[in-house]
Each structure stands twice: as C-alpha cells, then as structure tokens.
Specification:
Elements (H helix, E strand, L loop, with lengths): L8 E7 L11 H12 L5 E6 L4 H13 L3 E5 L3 H6 L3 H9 L1 H13 L4 E6 L2 E2 L2 H17 L5 E8 L15 E8 L18 H6 L15 E9 L5 H5 L1 H27 L1
Helix pairs in contact: 1-2
Length: about 260
C-alpha cells in the first residue's frame, strides 16, 4: 500500500473488444502496439476486459507478453451472458467497462499513490507525462486534501497532430485517483450512456465542452492524446461517431446471440 507522502503513479488502461464498424479491423491492435512502443516509461498495467473473440484476445495477450507488460484479465463467460435477460442488461455485461475501470483502480492502488485511469486508446507524450506529474506534485503541497485530478482528452485524426495537441479541442476528461479516493465509476452505467460523465459531474466538471471544472474536489492538470482506431470522419464528427458506435454495439449483440444459439443447437 502506498504511503501518504508518496507521489508514485501507475497508469491503468482497459482493453476491450474490437467493435466494427466503429473500429477499423486491425487498428486497435496497431494502436496498442504504438502505445507499448512509444509511450514514456510510465509504470502501467492493463485490464483485459470481457474480450469475446478468442483470436483477437490471443493477439492482445501476445502483444502484452512481447513487451513484458503486466495485465489482469476479466474473462467473458458465455453462459453468464446467455442467462441474462434483456438487451441492455446483456450489453452491460458484454462491455463491462465501469466494473473493469474499478478493478484497474483497485489493482493500481496496491502499488502507487495515484492511479491514472485511461481507456486503451489514450496515451501520454513524454512532455504530457512530465507535466501531469509535476502539477500534481505541486498541487499536493498546496492542497493535500485533494484526491482527484482531470486530464483533458485530445482526439487525434493523425499522429502528427500530437506535436501541437494544446490547440485541439477538449474532450471528455480522464481521471487520476489518489489511493484513498472514495469515489469510483458507477458500475450500473452502461458503455455509451454517460458511463464516465456521471462521475465527472460529481467531481465538478460541466457535462459539455470545454469541460470547465468547478469547486475544489478536482482540478485539471494536463491532457492525454486519443489515437484513432476507426474512420477519420468519425473522429471529426461526433454524430457520425455515435451512429457508428450504436451500429457496432448492435452488431456485437447479434454475434453473441448467434454464437449462443449455435452452441445450444
């Protein structure tokens, strides 16, 4: 367990399913390898979360093993899925995003004072990592009671934009949790239905861009970069992004239901 005066960090990311048409097949694996190869040497761990496709899961685990990464797996159990009634309840189990985020935070707390909770497609540049750490260090001296920090997400259409990320629009922040922080993600909230927003609002963030934060529970201390894993126009257009996401979730449920019917035949 981390000590009260410790300023150690652990980055924890959730690796979920590849979901076309929102995801271009192969792009999530390429994105994962980019992060593994290019991100600064930050202490990190991964939660492999409810991956349905055995081939995709194997390739994810092979990549993590090749780079000597630590990971924890939450297995998808087809029998559990099949026993759940209702589309939304099945979707919540299939994605399992907030439960996986909370598992990652619990694991990171065992070894570090601060857990940086990120999605798979977000990463730090060297400068962004150094800036975040220094701002939290300085703030802990001024406000030792603060247990939460926000990181704005900057969405990249092209990796070359990383050099000028400050000029990109702010998108939904990610959260840094101190080891003694009591607030966590609401596990009843489903992916795509304000799964992260609800916690951000409790911490003082406005629900819409540019995501100003109010009060003294949380402050913004930097940004992370979001890598593209689908069509470029989906990164630029939020309505198109949501349309593709909804289509992806519907297709995923259809595939899982078809696999269950085949197994029972």
């Amino acid at each position: 367990m981390a000590h009260a005066d410790d300023l150690s960090f652990c980055v924890c990311r959730i690796i979920g399913n590849e979901l076309p048409p929102r995801d271009t097949p192969g792009e999530r694996l390429a994105m994962l390898e980019y992060v593994l190869a290019k991100e600064p040497a930050a202490p990190r761990l991964w939660v492999v979360n409810h991956i349905h496709d055995a081939h995709y899961r194997r390739r994810v685990v092979e990549l993590l093993d090749r780079y000597g990464e630590r990971f924890h797996e939450i297995a998808f159990v087809p029998g559990v899925y099949a026993a759940i009634e209702g589309r939304f309840a099945r979707l919540a189990y299939a994605i399992n995003v907030n439960a996986a985020r909370n598992v990652g935070i619990a694991l990171a707390r065992r070894e570090a004072r601060f857990c940086v909770s990120l999605d798979q497609d977000c990463f730090f540049t060297d400068q962004a990592w150094a800036d975040m750490r220094e701002r939290i260090r300085a703030d802990q001296e001024r406000a030792p009671q603060r247990m939460y920090y926000g990181l704005m997400m900057k969405r990249l259409v092209d990796i070359e934009q990383a050099a000028d990320a400050d000029g990109l629009p702010n998108e939904e922040p990610h959260i840094v949790f101190r080891a003694d922080a009591p607030e966590l993600f609401d596990e009843k909230r489903m992916f795509g239905r304000a799964d992260k927003h609800a916690l951000l609002i409790r911490l003082g963030y406005e629900p819409d861009p540019p995501y100003a934060v109010h009060g003294d529970t949380c402050i913004t201390v930097g940004h992370v970069l979001h890598l593209r894993c689908g069509p470029s126009d989906a990164e630029r257009d939020v309505e198109n992004r949501l349309r593709l996401r909804n289509a992806s979730l519907a297709l995923m449920l259809s595939r899982l239901d078809a696999a269950h019917r085949a197994a029972m035949a």
